[in-house]
Records
---
Amino acid sequence: MPETKNPALTAFVEKNYDLIRNLEFISFLIFITGFTLYEFKVTGSNVILIAGVISTVIFLYLQSFKMIEFEGSEAYNTLGSFPVVNFIFRLYYYSLCVLLISMLGLAFDINKGIAFSIVGGISLAAVFILSLFSRMKDKSKVYDLKFYFRMIVCFIFLGILLAEKGVIN
């Protein structure tokens, strides 16, 4: 197994990965509920949106420490190798965290919300392209439907918020 910068956190995540993944799913549902209520201008939806974003960011950050292991990997210098796939997943989780925080900034008109959303969107688009190249090269089942579903949901919500703020038409 490749070395990480925080072996204690990696060991914690490996030991409790099913729990973290389930809690991330629940917090993502809270985020979607809060975002939907926010869009319908329901009073008090700010608390649900904030709780959903913060809890989702925490669990996504924890998931970034999971080492991805799969069979059928090619040599260590290709896009389908263990280090590259782990880098893609770590960048994926970090860019989702930045994107969710930027959505919170856009929703509450915080000054740097648009800048963070551009950074998060570009990094998530880069992850999408890298994962497609890696998937075509290796043909392994590393990138599942949930990997792309999270990405698509975040892009849709980001587009809605940017359209509301007048950044895109």
---
Amino acid sequence: MNKKITVVFVLVFLSVCANALNWHSIKEMEHSTEAKTKPVMVVVYKEGCPYCERLHDIMESNQLVNSVAGDFYLVSIDVKDAQKNYGAIIKKTPTVIFINSKREEIVPQIEGLPADTLEFVEYMQKAKVIYSIQQNK
């Protein structure tokens, strides 16, 4: 019984600790000074895509993912808008693209739902490190 109470308490605590992420549009990014001082994570989604919804849930509710994602300027864009207005070539949704303020890819994009949450966190960390190195040149 005590184990069940402890597990429930930990789950409630973790869900309360996860911060709501601040998502932006591409247009907001273009006019943002914050987007010039942080690495940018662009999530390309498709309405009704279950994998896109799952990625959004992971980013919002997983404390570790949420914490690391908070270090990025987050942009969310529909695949049709990305293709029509920005010439993006998107093969799968979701697609996660990490860019710098010059719109250059920091690391190769992730196509589809990341297979493992920890690997996704490590990939975000890698993007942050490469971004920092690029900024210090």
---
Amino acid sequence: MKISSNQKIKRFLEIVAVIMALFLVTLLIVLVNSNKNFGRFNRFTLLHTSGPVTADDVVFIQTWMTFDYVNHIFNLPKEYLMTKLSVSNGSYPRLTIEKYAKTKGLKSSVVLLQVEDAVRAYFASKQ
């Protein structure tokens, strides 16, 4: 059976359409994933590049952060959070908020709120 040139062109265009569809799906997946990661990156980059942090920036604190990191970002005295939260763990300040919560038997979200409140209190005391 002989294939006409019109049929060859039609088959070629079908193959091109499938390849383009696969490319667009792949591109969409990459864009969605990079947007998620960009959002995470953007929040923490913002803390380091947007000028001095304020009490409003406590919403960026995450449970994976160490007390040392929080102290650094918010320019807190090294012992401030230890004193304010009564942290007696010998790993302070290289202790994550999440690990500290586990050692105290608390939900990390509860300790996170305590850290946020302590940072807000520090800013309030400086005004």
